[in-house]
Amino acid sequence: MMTPEEMEEKKKMVLSMCVCSSCPSWVACDEKGGFCFPTIGKSKCITEEKGCICKNCPVYEKMDLKHMYFCTKGSEKEQAGM
Asked: Which domain holds residue 60?
C-alpha cells in the first residue's frame, strides 16, 4: 500500500511518460492522459476506440501493465476487477 505522497509521485511519473495524446483514440479536452493510473481512471472525453497505443507507452512496461484501452475501460486495477 502506498502513502498519498507516494501515489502523487507515481502519478507525476506516469503523466511525465504518458503518450496518450499520440493515440488515434485521443480527443483533445482538458485531460492530460495517464488513464492507466488508478487515481486518474478513464477519460471523460474519449468515447470511441479508434486504435490503441498503450503497449507502446513507456509506462506500460515500467508498471508491468497487461490491459489496453485504459481511456475507455479504466485503469489496470479496474480492468483486473480489483
From this structure: 4-79
